[in-house]
Structures are given as C-alpha cells and as structure tokens.
Amino acid sequence: xxxxxxxxxxxxxxxxxxxxxxxxxxxxxxxxxxxxxxxxxxxxxxxxxxxxxxxxxxxxxxxxxxxxxxxxxxxxxxxxxxxxxxxxxxxxxxxxxxxxxxxxxxxxxxxxxxxxxxxxxxxxxxxxxxxxxxxxxxxxxxxxxxxxxxxxxxxxxxxxxxxxxxxxxxxxxxxxxxxxxxxxxxxxxxxxxxxxxxxxxxxxxxxxxxxxxxxxxxxxxxxxxxxxxxxxxxxxxxxxxxxxxxxxxxxxxxxxxxxxxxxxxxxxxxxxxxxxxxxxxxxxxxxxxxxxxxxxxxxxxxxxxxxxxxxxxxxxxxxxxxxxxxxxxxxxxxxxxxxxxxxxxxxxxxxxxxxxxxxxxxxxxxxxxxxxxxxxxxxxxxxxxxxxxxxxxxxxxxxxxxxxxxxxxxxxxxxxxxxxxxxxxxxxxxxxxxxxxxxxxxxxxxxxxxxxxxxxxxxxxxxxxxxxxxxxxxxxxxxxxxxxxxxxxxxxxxxxxxxxxxxxxxxxxxxxxxx
Length: 515
Hints:
The chain is α+β, with helices and mostly antiparallel strands. The protein has helices at about 10-20, 35-40, 105-125, 170-175, 220-225, 325-330, 370, 385-390, 400-415, 425-435, 455-460, 505-510, and strands at about 1-5, 50-55, 60-65, 65-70, 75-80, 85-90, 95, 105, 190-195, 235, 240, 245, 260, 285, 290-295, 305-315, 335-345, 355, 440-450. The radius of gyration is 25 Å and the shape is globular. Strand 6 and strand 7 form a beta hairpin.
C-alpha cells in the first residue's frame, strides 16, 4: 500500500495552528498561541537523538541513521533519503518526503517544550493547554514488541466525559473524540483471537432483564440500569433508532408490562418490522494503529457494555509449523483495537471476541438479507463472509498476498454496499480490508479497560434511558421514519379502586394511532 505525502511544511503549519491545546478543534484556543500548541504536542514525544518530525494522521520521527519511530519511540520502519520514502514494517510506503521542509527535534527541545507546558499550566490553570488533542495520533503508539505494560486506566473514561453530538458518519464522528494513550500489552499472558460476523440482528445487549441473565442489563432500579450503560441501541430497517423496549403488546385495562422490541432475526412479524443493528456500530479507524469496534463476547469473559483493549501479535488461531502466519497477520501486528460487548455469543469461547464487521458473514442468523434484498450479490461464506470467499483457489487462494485479499474484499464490499442506502456498511467493510489488513482469525493479547466515549455514544440507547416507558408496542417498526413516538398516558403502575391499570377508552384511541 502506498501513500503520498503532500508538503510536510503545510501539514506542520496546520498542526501548529490547530494542535495540542484544544479538546475541540472548533473552539478557540484559550491562553495558548501557535507556539504553545506546538509545545503541547511535542512535550509528549520520546526523542532519543536529533530527528525530523513528520506530522500527519500518524506522526513519525525520522532519525538521521534512517530509523523511523512513532512519537513514543517505537520503531515502525526505515527512511530512504535517496528516494524520500518511508517503508513501514507492515509494507506500507509513504512517499514524497522532503526533510528540508520538516521541523528538526532534539531531546533538549522536547525537554524545553515540557517545561514551557508546565509554566503555562501554572500561569493559567484554566488553559486548554492541559487538554489532550483529540486529533493527535501520536499518543497511540504502535508496538515494537517491547516489555508489556498494562494500559488499564489510560483510556478516556465514559464517566469523565459526556455524550458528543455526532453526525452518524463514524469516520467524521471519530474526529470529535480524544485519542486514548495505550501501551503495548504483547506478552501479558492473556491470549485470544477474533472471528467475524455481521448478521444485522438486534443486539443481544438491547434486551432487558431483572437478573442479568446472559449478561443483559438489569432494570430493577434506574441506578442499576444506568450503571450498565443502559441497553444497546436498536434501529429499524431504515437505520433509524427505535426504542429498545416499550409497553407490552398485551397492555390492556387490567394489566400492564413492558416488552423488548422484537428482533428482526427472531420473533418480529413481519421480520422487516423488527429491530436491527444500527449501521454506525461498524468498526472505525481512529488512526493507523488504533481502531474501535463492537463484538460478541463469551459470558465467561464479559457482560453487556464492557470494553477490552486488544493488541495483535502477528499470528492467528490455527497457526502451526505447517500453517504459518500469513502476510495479513504480520501486517496487523502491533495494532490496537478497543472493543465493546454489544452481544453475548453462546458459541463464543473465553478470550475470543467475535468482531462485528460488514462482510464478515452472517453466522447463525441473517437480517442483512432483509436490509439488502438482492439476488445478484455474492455474500461469501455464511461463516467467514467475503474473506473466506476470497481464499478460494480461483481467487487469491489460502496463501494469497495481502494486496490480493485487500483488492478482492474491497471489490466485494463495493458490489454489496456501494449502491445500498447504508453507507456505514461500505465504510466498515472497507475498514476490514484496509485497517484490519484482511486478517483471518488473528490472535492478540487483551485486557479489560474503561470504555472510550465514542463507543459509549454508539452503544447507549438515546430513547429507552428510563426503566419507565410510555411508548406503545409496534409490530412493524418499518413504518417509523423519525419524529415523535406514539405514547399513551392512559395507564398507571397503580390500579384504581376497581383494579384498572389503564383507561380503556383512552388506551384504545392511542393504540389506533399509526406512524
């Protein structure tokens, strides 16, 4: 994969003006000019000798001996001065680099920047110089296999940040959030592996319970419900969010109750009227070495709404002497992903996380064919999806090249999703080819972490946030196109003197309303 770099000077100037002192690039930088912003940026760098700073989506440090590292000192590739190119360990080539246009850094300059940042904090305690730059990818190092250290507690905690107003496009939304600082965890002793699927069904974690059965969120009290991150969001077939639960279908004069929204993969009738996975829960890249995604986990490992940091080790589940790791697994090595459990899988093993990714194959159930009902699409294997299809001998074969797999999968993504009304499915499918390197069941080390606010915002229902509801049951949510929900004030938790929970006339009138 080759990338072109346009004028390092222009990139550097933009970074100095927009950089490390603001938590929101749309907000003015308070008490911090361009020099302060640059100091804040480089004060976090690990610099061992004189080097050149190459800023961008992923910042790099180019040393005079040709070594290239990330901003935390992890070696990621080499620089060829004769051609002006960086060749990364994963084979990616970055071209058109002119060292004369880059800023030179030394250990002394970084130390001075740290001192200036400390002075800024002392003279202006409210300065935004104390806030991490959400668009700086230099705070998320890739691993070079150094001694592992736990990153627990270094992820932006959902309890410390509030929801962000998002657009629904994950690739744009991710720019609004801070980037967590992660350390390598390779060799920490907790091994696991990814499988993949996208069945488009209503998430398991959108169902409520009283006893937490199968990891579901409890709704005995409001505090208990909030502590579990509520229920996972649910969308209808138009990808519009709908309630995770409503008044029961059987609501009547002498009885009240609540009911989970029917699942398009199971009890919904018609199936197209049920609940689906919201498409913006597809994986998204934070930068070259960090991504976010949702997973199905094992009940022995997780419950709904928990998050885990995984770092890939360059191998895969079934690797052995006769079946070595492929180029795809090696290209993924060192990358980090933070995943949030939105499903609990009965067939998922401890340490395994079944990655939700469009094109990954439906698995047991399939609501995707309700959303995109076309007979001319090649969906690949039921278990394994597009990649398994591309591993066929008539395509790339089992030991195919990285480029072949990426090209084959991207073509299948385009054929399936490009002309659909679900652009997030196309983005997530491309992510599997481009960021995830089309890796088949890669292995990793893992640890539990606080959930980043981005994942929390994509996970939590924005509708069913109270254990009480007035929304009426609908058997066909496909009729809902947005706006207010049909509710009723006809019912009470406490019956009247004649045992009635609901006023029958008012309830009948409300039930007669339609979307």
